Amino acid sequence: MSLSLEYDPGLPLRICEDRLAFEYGHDVFGPEPEMRRLDTIRASLWDPQCDGPDPVYGIAMDVGRVQDRAVLQERFLLFATLVYASGRLGTELVRSQGHVHTVAPHSGWSPPEIFEIWSGAAIVYAQERAEDNPGHCIAVTARAGDKVVVPPGWAHCVINADPEHRMSLGAWCDRQYGFDYTGVRAHRGLAWFPIFTDSGDIKWHSNPNYSPSLLEQRKARAYPELGLDSTQSLYRQFLDNPDSVMFVPEPQRAADIWPAFIP
Fold it and tell me: 23 in helix, strand or coil?
């Protein structure tokens, strides 16, 4: 059995009821999802010895309509789909480990990424650097239909903000994607940890392995400076105007925007 999404992603997809995966509809290609196990992210958690859902989330890289496969490959675009488990990782919210994108050989840039929430509630956390001084630290709260852009070179993770429900999302990525965990692992995580309190609130704890920093919490916003349409799904925008998302594999298109860009 499968479950419908709260937001139409522009592709015929449904969440599998019994696993962290999507059921692909007619003329949609995609791989079996990779399951991210709890043991692979423990070292970056607030409590590395915690219990929690395992797997933590499922991710399928390279999903799309069969008739779009060639143009996606030509443009170095890759669409990813993810489903996050409900529950908690000890007292921490369910989340990914956190990483920086490696430099894509075809562009010479660490690519940006666009996330779109399809069901549940999410927080996209991003920090400017994975160094001792993390720079700007931003936590963006997003719900079904919201989009969040992480700029080039920023360390980031995605968090399920509601322990009672699974969360799903899609993302435009660079086809020559790669994940660099070096800085995050060297600091035993990102600069801030999302802790779920007994009262049902989220309290952020700073990571003492970084220099002191401030956390700015925001709601998801539109990105007119990048040409994104907040009223359309990310995949539908690609179908209507492929250039609208080409700043992902070709970040130089927005080279004048990135220096002052905040998610």
Answer: strand
Instruction: Identify the pLDDT of residue 3.
Output: 75
Using CB atoms within 10 Å of the CB of residue 194, give its burial: 0 to 12 exposed, 13 to 18 middle, 19+ buried. Answer: buried
Task: Collect all residues with Cβ–Cβ distance below 8 Å to 252 and sequence separation of at least 6.
Answer: 107, 109
ω into 55 cis (within 30 of 0): yes
User: What integer best gives the mean pLDDT of the chain?
Assistant: 97
Instruction: Name 247's bridge partners.
Output: none
DSSP, residue by residue, 48-100: TT----SS-EEEEES-EEGGGHHHHHHTTEEEEEEEE-SSEETTEEPB---BE
* Cα atoms in the Cβ-side hemisphere of radius 13 Å centred on 157: 24
0.85 exceeded by the pTM? yes
Could you tell me which CATH class the domain 2-260 is placed in? mainly beta
Residue 4 confidence (pLDDT) = 84
Could you tell me how many residues make up the chain? 263
